[in-house]
Design goal:
CATH superfamily of one domain in chain A: P-loop containing nucleotide triphosphate hydrolases
Structural class of chain A: mainly alpha
Shape of chain B: globular
Oligomer: heterodimer
Distance between the termini of chain A: 76 Å
CATH architecture of one domain in chain A: 3-Layer(aba) Sandwich
Structural class of chain B: mainly alpha
Number of helices of chain A: 46
Largest sheet of chain A: 5 strands, parallel
Radius of gyration of chain A: 33 Å
Order of helices and strands of chain B: HHHHHHHHHHH
Number of helices of chain B: 11
Helix content of chain B: over 70%
Strand order of the largest sheet of chain A: 2-3-4-1-5
């Protein structure tokens, strides 16, 4: 073969190979694994990718191989699409169903239409497509030159690595180390991912002296003389690519005077005949891989001569030929050659590429056309291509890429050659909109500024847009002023007036100005009444009014308004209006009003309704997340678990996925299912590596809670410390929960003597609690009420470190009972009993509290808490089994079935029924849509509560206690 | 060959750098451990310029951490991320230097090279460290921070105010630098930057930190454009190296 790319042996990489293999093999619970190779150019990253790839392929894995391009954000998800097309050509002989799944997925990219949750839906479709293609096999995604990946590709990677794609997946990617300097987005992503157990970031160093000589000897066919070896070591610095090339020169008797790669390759290019010379430079200017037909059009040689020229270039080890086209031997070579061309030569080649591509469709058609025309110095022709590329990117929700293409278009339009032909206003506006969509709010505002500067445009429309951008950038005060300006504009239509006023009301609500928000909302409702088809405004304004009334302590009035808005939406609104109305209603009920049962019912009914309306992915997931959190708080954990499983079946992405995963993790921490909790926390951390700082504190709070059940109070302390230094001071509830976890960790460390109490940490936590208490003074009543309940816990934990006052715990019990949150109430009861027992007084009361707590903890399924109650009871010789004492408890959700099964939760009874049918844990898991492991946890709870040791004994109790007519 | 980079504490430094701190308490912990190692490495504590810089940086980071705990800043999330990103770059430079990598920023390597030298004057060297960290690392740390928080650099924003508050911490932490050298520094900086107008209060750190903020805004605009971004990075590296070399040159002695 003339293509001896991998001709040289792999030298000095045994350790790295082993590390990659072991990381990829550690795919324990079906969690995706990943290895990122970083290193400088030529160090052999791609070589290792190929090596590991072919090993995995031999072991039966399905490989998808793609490379990112360096022509700017070429096109969303380009490397994946390239990988799929490559697989498509390979699969022509393969199994037909994989092939049709593959075509289906490629079709998704071609036909994807913008929708309300387009970006998320695309991720889901892609992962579903990959699932079908893999057909149960291990899927290995190999990505080269990841430093050039577009944002969409990075997001997809995180989505898949978070395990949301339900795939047996491994990712193997190469990243150039030099690009990780500066502010490259991958830099931070890799720092975050590095901490996960399933991800490995390997830095490939240059070869050492011995390995360098070994490689050189292998290439040259014999060991080099000492002087030559020394020289080669000095020149190559152990870079395998350079070593290989230098050794080859030595072997072939070329005088190696060249000290740099540049010289090595330029000498080689100079040795080429003219045609081959032209071919090499043409490829250097093109976008790799350059297809044969395209090369033919650019170098303009007759077919036979072209083939000879290509052959020559390949033989000189400059060019590599593959099915899809030609590329230079290494990116380094392309960089050397490109720098050698004169500007006019380069422009002329770009011109030819552009002309050739104009006539024929190719991969990345518009992006490439725009690229070549621009560099050919033809802005007039580049402009339409840039615009088409931008629209193509928007269709696939790649707003970063779209923004770049639009920006290019604006620049092109500014050149004098284009001048009057371009609609500059339109370009600026679309660029601004794309910038807004990808979070570049300052840029969007600056662009809008330019539009305003020379606009005969209606002033109101522009003001509304500016206000929208300002609000999105979090600059609320300026946004408010801008909305006011829009209202005052002479050309403001009644419809616009209603829209503005509704948005103003929402903005004021976020600013905490409830009275103003209420007044604006009423005004907006009046305005909207007069305009047909303004249901969205009605829903928005009603929600603002509802919340502001609730915050101003007239909950009933607020509730009535939001209910009415739901009716209006159902009667005359778009599906999104209905979904929003449900969302607001459920949030109002479970949030400020704390009527959790009703809120959960509304959320679940809403979820069903929006699913009917076809908005399953986004709104249904959000509504279900509200339901899960509500169910958790009222203590119906089994039900919450079921809802979480249903919500995840939609494969949510982004913030929606994070919400559901955090909610499920909260359950796992309560259940004491450490593995499951860890997995969800890792998944959340993965998703947050792409941005999303606001979920960090709940994540850290859960980590702390989990660490405490494991007796790792040091880890809990660390998590809380990090949280304290990163929490926004206005998130009072989240902060209060975090502070409680911190104080609890210190108190438990004190009680268990696992580590010594950190007095400084306690002082800081108490100061933080004081600040929260102070700020809560001015917060809305519903917020104040939750914060006070957490602060009661904090005060009691502090007393646990010095003295342990049962009265403080009693206060906490009362606070949480009042709010109908059995979990923290139960925890507080346990501590109150503990404090009473420590004073050796009132042990009757302590016993009663323990029994109450025990019943409630059993009802929840809170295993670690139950265990602690048992320990305390055991120490105090309190008998827990006495029933009846629990009857007075306001916190347990009374189980329907009586007798021996009374202690089981609804979910546990379901599991027990399935056990009695003789199903295995796996089968039960499939039936109930929960993991096999969770079933295991349930089964052990059942054994525990029924005090049995085998499935048969458990089944016997079930049969015994069933009413006779059920037989 | 690379075993001698950190002398007798080489192994410990390598182990320390293998771990990457992800929050401010961990950064303080890391800097403290590094300080111990650097002090152990050199017999008398004033002879290692890096130790002098590290002590200063540790003091500043400890005060930032206190500020975070005490609610001194309005946007805690922003400032924590920034502090971690900022420190990560110092540790990166140390790691690259340890590996004898050619990718070690020149702004830093011109200081690291001096560690063994006989003519080391610790205070200007520490100043060279501040120069590298603020002139080169800080703008990129700012951009990464804004990027990860899905926010952006806006003058007069909460983040900008918090960022400026750090100047007070610097000012309190380095009174000796302020009193002793600033008049001379002003001269040096005027020569290098040319922008005399920007020199408003005669406070070095405040001045360069403001330059860093403006550079961050510049990088922010071109962060998705690889070529422009790399060009900007090289420009900053060259600029910081030049200033660093000047501080380390005999002229630096004049500053002391």
């Amino acid at each position: 073969m003339i293509n001896d790319v991998d001709g040289a042996p792999l030298v000095g990489r045994a350790e790295s190979l082993e590390a990659i293999r072991s990381t990829l093999a550690s795919t324990g619970q079906g969690q995706p694994t990943a290895v990122f190779l970083t290193g400088e150019s030529g160090v052999g990253k791609s070589r290792l990718l190929r090596e590991v790839g072919s090993e995995l392929r031999d072991a039966g894995a399905l490989l998808l191989t793609g490379a990112c391009l360096d022509i700017g954000d070429a096109s969303p998800l380009h490397p994946l699409r390239q990988a799929l097309r490559r697989l498509d050509t390979e699969l022509t002989t393969g199994p037909p169903n994989a092939s049709s799944a593959l075509r289906g997925l490629l079709g998704v990219f071609a036909d994807q239409a913008s929708g309300p949750d387009g970006a998320g839906a695309l991720l889901e479709q892609v992962s579903h497509g990959l699932h079908l293609i893999a057909g149960g096999r291990q899927l290995v995604l190999i990505l080269d030159d990841l430093q050039w990946a577009d944002r969409s590709t990075r997001q997809l990677l995180l989505y898949l690595l978070a395990g949301l794609g339900d795939l047996h997946l491994s990712v193997l990617a190469a990243v150039r180390a030099e690009s990780l300097q500066g502010a490259h987005p991958l830099r931070r992503m890799l720092t975050e991912l590095r901490r996960l157990r399933t991800v490995r970031v390997l830095d490939l160093a240059p070869l050492d002296r011995a390995a360098t000589e070994q490689l050189a000897a292998a290439v040259a066919g014999e060991a080099l003389p000492t002087a030559a070896a020394e020289q080669l070591w000095q020149r190559s610095g152990g870079n395998p690519f350079v070593v290989e090339e230098l050794a080859r020169d030595l072997r072939d008797g070329r005088v190696g005077l060249s000290d740099t790669l540049r010289e090595i390759f330029l000498t080689r290019v100079e040795a080429l005949p003219p045609d081959a010379h032209a071919v090499v430079y043409a490829v250097a200017v093109g976008v790799e891989p350059v297809a044969h037909w395209l090369l033919a059009k650019v170098v303009r040689l007759p077919e036979d001569e072209l083939i000879d020229a290509v052959r020559e270039a390949v033989a000189h080890r400059l060019l590599v030929s593959a099915d899809e086209g030609y590329r230079l031997r290494h990116r380094l070579v392309a960089e050397v050659l490109e720098a050698e061309l004169l500007p006019v030569e380069r422009a002329a080649l770009h011109q030819r590429y552009a002309q050739a591509l104009t006539g024929a469709h190719a991969e990345l058609h518009q992006a490439r056309l725009a690229y070549h025309w621009r560099l050919a110095g033809e802005p007039v022709r580049a402009l339409p291509a840039a615009m088409a590329a931008a629209e193509e990117a928007e269709r696939l929700h790649g707003y970063v890429e779209a923004h770049r293409h639009w920006s290019t278009a604006v620049q092109l339009a500014e050149t004098s050659a284009v001048g009057a032909t371009a609609d500059r206003m339109m370009l600026l506006e679309r660029t601004a909109e794309a910038a807004h969509h990808c979070g570049e709010h300052a840029r969007a505002l600056a662009l809008l500024e330019e539009v305003t500067a020379d606009a005969a445009q209606p002033a109101c429309g522009l003001s509304i847009r500016r206000a929208r951008y300002l609000a999105a950038a979090g600059r609320s005060a300026l946004a408010e002023a801008e909305y006011q300006r829009a209202l005052a504009a002479a050309d403001c239509t009644p419809r616009q007036r209603a829209t503005i006023t509704a948005h103003l009301a929402e903005l004021l609500l976020h600013l905490g100005r409830y009275a103003d928000a209420g007044a604006r909302a009423r005004e907006a409702l009046e305005l909207a009444d007069a305009v047909a088809g303004s249901t969205s405004e009605v829903v928005l304004a009603s929600a603002a009014l509802g919340f502001s009334e609730a915050f101003r302590e007239d909950p009933e009035a607020g509730l009535a308004v939001v209910r009415r808005a739901l009716d209006t939406a159902e009667r005359s609104g778009r599906p999104e209006d209905v979904a929003c109305a449900y969302l607001h209603l459920a949030e109002l009920l479970t949030g400020p009003l704390n009527t959790l049962e009703e809120g959960v019912v509304v959320a679940r009914r809403g979820a069903e309704r929006v699913a009917e309306l076809g908005l399953g992915r986004t709104y249904e997931t959000r509504l279900l997340a509200i339901a899960i959190n509500g169910l958790f708080r009222v203590g119906q954990w089994a039900e919450a678990e079921k809802v979480a499983a249903a919500a995840l079946r939609h494969r949510p992405s982004g913030a929606d996925a994070v919400e559901v995963l955090l909610a499920r993790c909260r359950l796992s921490v309560g259940y004491g299912d450490i593995e499951a909790a860890d997995r969800d926390l890792d998944a959340v951390a993965t998703l947050c590596a792409g941005g999303g700082a606001r979920h960090v504190i709940p994540l850290l709070t859960l980590r702390a809670g989990l660490a405490m059940w494991q007796g790792r109070h040091d880890l809990a302390r660390k998590a809380v410390q990090r949280g304290l230094t990163e929490s926004r001071s206005d998130d009072l509830v989240i902060l209060a929960a975090l502070i409680w976890h911190g104080l609890r960790a210190e108190a438990e460390a004190h009680a268990s003597r696992s580590i010594s109490v950190d007095e400084t940490a306690v002082r800081r936590l108490r100061e933080a609690a004081d600040r929260v208490a102070h700020r809560a003074g001015t917060a809305a009543r519903p917020v104040r009420s939750v914060v006070e309940a957490f602060l009661a816990l904090c005060a009691a934990e502090v007393s646990r470190i010095n003295g342990n006052d049962p009265e403080l715990w009693a206060r906490s019990v009362a606070e949480w009972d009042r709010r109908n949150h059995p979990y923290p109430a139960t925890y507080s009861r346990l501590r109150q009993a503990e404090a009473l027992l420590a004073r050796r007084s009132r042990s009757t009361k302590a016993g009663k509290l323990l029994r109450q707590a025990y019943q409630s903890a059993l009802g929840l399924g809170a295993v670690p808490l139950t265990a602690e109650i048992k320990t305390v009871a055991g120490r105090a010789r309190v008998a827990l089994a006495e029933r009846g004492a629990a009857a007075g408890s306001p916190t347990t959700s009374t189980p329907a079935a009586g007798g021996e099964l009374a202690a089981l939760t609804a979910r546990e009874r379901e599991v027990l029924a399935a056990v009695a049918e003789g199903l295995t844990n796996k089968e039960i898991g499939q039936r109930l849509f929960i993991s096999e492991r969770t079933i295991g946890v349930h089964v052990s709870h059942i054994f525990d509560k029924l005090q049995v040791r085998t499935r048969v004994q458990a089944s016997a109790i079930l049969l015994r206690s069933q009413p006779p007519d059920a037989h | 060959m690379s075993d001698v980079v950190w002398g007798c504490v080489h192994r410990d430094v390598v182990d320390l750098l293998a771990d990457r701190p992800v929050d401010v308490p961990a950064v303080v912990d890391h800097l403290t451990k590094l300080q111990d190692l650097l002090d152990r490495r050199s017999s008398s504590e004033d002879t290692c310029p890096l130790a002098v810089f590290n002590r200063l940086y540790l003091t500043i980071t400890e005060r930032v951490l206190e500020g975070l705990y005490e609610g001194f800043f309005s946007d805690v999330v922003f400032l924590s991320r920034l502090d971690v990103e900022f420190a990560a770059r110092y540790f990166d430079a140390l790691r690259l230097w340890t590996d004898s990598s050619s990718r070690c920023p020149k702004a830093w390597s011109c200081l690291f090279q001096r560690m063994q030298g006989p003519d080391v004057r610790p205070l200007p060297s520490a100043a060279a460290g501040i120069n590298a960290h603020i002139n080169y690392d800080l703008p990129f740390a700012l951009v990464s921070t804004f990027d990860s928080l899905e926010s952006e650099p806006v003058d007069g924003s909460e983040q900008h105010n918090d960022y400026l508050k750090i100047n007070d911490i610097f000012a309190a932490a380095i009174p000796s630098l302020r009193r002793g050298y600033l008049d001379h520094w002003q001269l040096v900086i005027d020569v290098l930057n040319g922008d005399v107008d920007d020199w408003y209060q005669g406070e070095l750190v405040e001045y360069v930190r403001d330059v860093a903020w403006r550079n961050a805004k510049k990088i922010w605009r071109c962060r998705n454009d690889r070529a422009a971004h790399e060009q900007e990075r090289l420009r900053l590296d060259n600029h910081a190296e030049l200033l660093g070399r000047l501080l380390l040159s005999p002229l630096g002695a004049y500053l002391q």
